[in-house]
Design a protein that fits this description.
By secondary structure, the protein is mainly α. Helices cover about 65% and strands about 0% of the residues. It has helices at about 1-5, 10-25, 35-55, 60, 70-90, 100-105, 115-120, 135-140, 145-150, 170-190, 200-205, 210-240, 265-270, 275-280, 285-295, 300-315, 315-340, 350-375, 380-385, 390-400, 410-415. α5 (about 70-90) crosses α15 and α18 runs antiparallel to α19. The longest helix has about 30 residues, at about 210-240. The protein is globular, with a radius of gyration of 23 Å.
Length: about 425
């Protein structure tokens, strides 16, 4: 009913997408199921591209952007369909030793029934704005095991409990609803005052100095963020209110309701690396990309993951500018961190100076990268990058060409720093 009310005739495509995937799941051998699902999604994207190319050229190159009402639920459908396909493949389509520990934990051991499949996709909590959840987590929630399974990981008798506690989401839901309301107010107040497209205005480019234009882009991108804070926090609150999203107990003994949270606002605003920002922005989508692409790509996982993310978001050129630009910036940030961070860990002052400088650079990198995502069209994007002299593209390429990708270990370079160990220099680094 919610989908029909919100999307009207577009809902027919939404339903047909899911029912066609049901047929694929039933008819196709589980060993190659995920391949068929991927092919279908790529074909679907290609169809959308063909439809847009049949429109006047100005729809793509200028600002007459075609608005697709059901794009958000279609994106969530794509995540859920491919997630289930890969987890079925991990559960009954591979040998036991082939999946990674994480893949084995999330693997689905049997094909879902039609009711389970449709419930997973059409449940009222996530049909409009998500977020995507793992199939096993959702089934545990539906069958009443969701909270008890997480609570059983703690020895409650040592804490003085005779039986398992019953965590309530009330406080968390009220907090998230308040946060979403504040985000909505901030977006309505500032988004019209600081439009991103003003940064491509000819008079502004010709008259404002470079630093002023840089500052304006930063403010304009900041004004755009509350829109996403509002939507994702509200969606998380809806799931929590239904009882879904419990994630155990933290170190202080507090109940956590962040199993399917989509962002961490504090970590986003204080991010000291490009990766730290990405890891805390649209968290469930990042987890989906990691599960279906990054962890499975035989080569070039970073590049392939960003390309898949661009395809998943849609066909507007701004998406591709954003995610293709993110590839060299991510790789350059990783190289810079590996080469220089170890020199700033010897004292608190140096570490603080490092954190402040990397926060500043990260904010500039994010603004430079995501501006095309907001602009959508190619013409303002190219105009924006020309006005910025492509400076982050150039810096990233120079860093990748000049610095070693795999520097010597700190022990070999500076014996005095052998006690310093960076816990985030692996693929989980921030």
């Amino acid at each position: 009913f919610l989908a029909s009310f919100c999307f009207g005739v577009y809902n027919l495509y939404l339903y047909s997408f899911r029912y066609l995937c049901v047929c694929v799941c039933v008819c196709v051998c589980v060993y190659i199921l995920y391949i068929y699902i991927y092919i279908y999604k790529i074909s679907d994207v290609s169809l959308c591209q063909s439809c847009l190319k049949s429109l006047p050229h100005t729809y793509i190159f200028n600002l007459w952007i075609l608005y697709t009402k059901c794009s958000s639920p279609l994106m969530i459908v794509t995540q859920k369909v491919t997630t289930l396909a890969f987890q079925l493949h991990d559960g009954i389509g591979q040998k036991a030793e082939e999946p990674t520990p994480e893949q084995r934990k999330l693997a689905v051991k049997a094909r879902p029934s039609l009711l389970e499949y449709l419930s997973y996709h059409f449940n009222f909590m996530s049909i409009l704005a998500g977020p995507c959840s793992n199939y096993k987590d959702y089934i545990d929630f539906i069958e009443g095991r969701h909270i008890s399974t997480k609570l059983s990981e703690v020895n409650w008798k040592q804490k003085g409990y005779d039986k398992l506690p019953e965590p309530s989401p009330l406080g968390v839901v009220v907090y998230k609803m308040f946060l979403s309301l504040v985000s909505l107010v901030l977006f309505l107040l500032f988004s019209k005052t600081f439009p991103v497209l003003y940064s491509t205005d000819d008079r502004f480019i010709n008259e404002a100095p470079f630093l002023a234009r840089l500052s304006y882009v930063y403010i304009a991108i900041q004004a755009c963020r509350p829109k996403y804070y509002f939507a994702w926090t509200l969606a998380d609150a809806v799931n929590n209110a239904a009882g879904f999203g419990f994630n155990g107990v933290d170190e202080k003994g507090n109940f956590k309701w962040d199993l399917i949270s989509n962002l961490n606002i504090w970590n986003i605003e204080t991010a000291t690396s490009f990766k730290m920002y990405i890891d805390n922005w649209n968290i469930q989508t990042a987890a989906w990309l990691k599960r279906v692409c990054y962890d499975r790509a035989p080569k070039y996982p970073t590049a392939l993951t960003f390309i898949l993310s661009a395809m998943w978001h849609g066909v507007y050129p701004g998406y591709y500018f954003t995610f293709l630009t993110a590839i060299p910036i991510t790789l350059a940030a990783r190289v810079m961190r590996k080469n220089f961070r170890k020199y700033f860990l010897s004292s608190r002052m140096l570490k603080a100076a490092y954190d402040v400088s990397t926060w500043f650079v990260t904010q500039l990198a994010i603004c430079y990268t995501v501006a095309p995502f907001v602009m959508l069209a190619a013409e303002p994007t190219l105009k924006f990058y020309r006005s910025m002299y492509y400076y982050f593209h150039i810096i990233s390429i120079v860093v990748l060409l000049m610095l070693p990708v795999k520097p010597q270990s700190p022990l070999q370079e500076h014996p005095s720093t052998q006690a310093v160990h960076n816990n985030h220099c692996s693929k989980k680094e921030k």
